[in-house]
Amino acid sequence: MTNQSNGVKNRAVAQWVAEAAQLTQPDQIVWCDGSEEERQRMTRDAIASRVLIPLNPAKRPGCYLHRSNPNDVARTEQLTFVCTPDKDGAGPTNNWMPPDETYAKLRGWLNGAMRGRTMYVVPYVMGPVGSPFAKVGFELTDSVYVALSMRIMTRMGRAALELLGDSDHFNRGLHSTLDLNPERRLICHFPQDNTIWSVGSGYGGNALLSKKCFALRIASYLGRTEGWLAEHMLILGLESPEGETTYVAAAFPSACGKTNLAMLLPPQAFKGWRVHTIGDDIAWLRIGADGRLWAINPEAGYFGVAPGTNAHSNPNAMKTVQHDAIFTNVAATPDGDIWWEGMGTEPPAGLIDWRGQKWDRGSGQPAAHPNSRFTAPMTNNPALSPKANDPQGVPISAIIFGGRRASTVPLVVEAYDWSHGVFFGASMGSETTAAAVGQVGVVRRDPMAMLPFCGYNILEYFGHWQELVKRLPNPPKIFEVNWFRKDREGKFLWPGYSENMRVLKWIVDRVKGRVGAEQTPIGLVPRKEELDLTGLEISTAQLQQATSINAGEWLAELDQVEEYFARLGAGSFNGFEERIKSARAALAQWR
Ligand code: GTP
Ligand code: SPV
Ligand code: MN
């Protein structure tokens, strides 16, 4: 076995890598340094082994296509476990197995699993290097696709080793694709050990351990212990024509619009307004010395949903994937470019579908997988905020919760206070999407968009949110939004995408105390004249439907929320029961 760990002096790292190698028996170990030379070498290897297909360099310089195993195209929540010493630590929403049993089972599967393969040692930093937020992780993986993706998604290589020094405080991620057999696929978290073992999948959220596994599940646990929050949130800065920038964080479930909102290009009528992207998926939030909530994006790249992305819906994303991007499970054109549903162009003749077969237009099957993705460095994004690398992060003035709801939830509603906002987050529901394996389009409760990502007991998590404000003299205002309400024909009532700017502006104006709102049984909503609709063609009836609060729908919603909280055992201690009771009383009087 070759193992050029020459430069690495950290004994805890060396020992842990040696143990993993002894278990998995790779043919060689490659220690990643993050250099350009290394990227080229790994890319050549990936092309030779058909893991990556080079795209036409004249059309997509530095871009590659990856086709995953067709059985491995999304997160597998039923195979994801939080292995705390006792079941209560994982809580009512997580799958749980005891740590010893889990390690033993996975050791059996991992025994000799990397024979004939290379183990990449991938050191990475989450957060700007030098930030008080920054954390070091290592991923040991036998997938070159994962190693190359980690190079885009994180600050990968030497910087991590330097930051770690001789400390043994780092996340230990071990990943093997095994033979991609779904029967031997498990994504297991050991929060007490700061350890993740993921086997049998090469898909993003299952395999790029920095992302959902570390930066959300393990980090949320660390945040609970250390007094901060790790959240499934985008972070953006909204700059006014006068040059005033307000920072907002927003939690929407998977495939519900975070990347799109984070990169928004304001509509024509909003001349002089600009959106700056800090992050598109994950936020780490801490209380600052000034009593405000400060946020960083721990990641360095985007793992974005491809379908629906086009020059109109998200022009900044289209520019972001113009070069140096990896595409997964999109369709391929005969001239070496890529295509997906909702790209805004006709599918060209001779299209190859995501499985690598000639696409039959009449088949009724999509050419790109509905959860096909792009992986691109954040530095490609024309809207990237100058603050994206700021070690201090940015101060958050508003938190937005949002879901994909065909009915009930209005375009925007503001919470009365932090605690009411926590109720918004805890009670939110959303239709399931292709980002996770399972039925698509059914409403499920997804508290704070963290249902699949909270690495500890969700009841404690609600408590942590409620407690945090006691140490936060200057909390952000909290809002709930819904871009996805539909009319009777099933068409979206609100145009969405860049037009969401209008809602962002109302939110910022509320934060600054510049605009009014109307009180409803659910919270505060804009009166018609308080939403800036300049240049937008929307009928009064359509706007009315998109923003209305229907008593019948809300009473049914509250029944579901109450039932969910009862199932979790979350009712009384957070004041949720009182919230439901008073909303019901107010709805009984509602027009
Ligand atoms: P994850 O990466 O899975 O966490 O997803 P995300 O929350 O970043 O979602 P993303 O922005 O990638 O959007 C997911 C899908 O929703 C895409 O197909 C978008 O085109 C669509 N979408 C995003 N914003 C809007 C909107 O305002 N209105 C409508 N109708 N669709 C939207
Ligand atoms: C999500 O599903 O929320 C994603 C994609 O952002 S994944 O990295 O696979 O989790
Ligand atoms: Mn996500």
Brief summary of the model shown:
This protein is an alpha/beta fold. The protein is built from 16 helices and 29 strands.
What does it look like?
Strand 1, helix 1 (11-24) and strand 2 form a beta-alpha-beta unit. The chain is built from 16 helices and 29 strands. Strands 1, 2, 5, 6, 7, 8, 9, 10 and 11 form a nine-stranded mixed sheet that branches. The chain is globular and about 75 Å long. The mean pLDDT is 97. Helix content is 28%, strand content 21%. It has three domains: 2-52 and 76-227, Phosphoenolpyruvate Carboxykinase, domain 1 (3-Layer(aba) Sandwich); 230-300 and 385-588, Phosphoenolpyruvate Carboxykinase, domain 3; 302-380, Phosphoenolpyruvate Carboxykinase, domain 2 (Beta Complex). With 591 residues, it is α/β, with parallel strands linked by helices. The relative contact order is 0.12. Helix 2 runs antiparallel to helix 5 and helix 15 packs antiparallel against helix 16. The longest helix is centred in the C-terminal third of the chain and has 18 residues, at 551-568. Manganese (II) ion binds at residues 232, 254, 281.
